[in-house]
Amino acid sequence: PKFGRTSLIRNKLDKFYNDLTSENAGRWVEGFGDLPDGLVRFALTLPHWKEGTVPPKPFRELLEDVNAEDMRQMQMRGLSSKYQQSIGFKEFAGFMEKKIERMFV
User: Fold this and answer.
1) For residue 43, what are the β-bridge partners?
2) Span 14-39, mean pLDDT?
3) 62: Cβ–Cβ under 8 A, 6 or more apart, which residues?
């Protein structure tokens, strides 16, 4: 398969922060060799808050906060710039906007 219409989205990136180091962050993004080379992939954290409570901020602000934290955490772990474009909701949303535009224009 060519995976031309497939994108892998791994959410809950924040759950992996403590497991990632400068030695393994790039390999983790690549799937430790278990993912096909041509597969477009993203890792991101979605906003979350304690169940049964009101979100502490508007959803859009929460989304911007977790995106910034994903980027900060992965940069702290020395993730190569080659992989930075696959980290965070902002990168994923930008990719999808362009892909949809190409498909329907």
Assistant:
1) 10, 87
2) 93
3) 47, 49, 55, 56
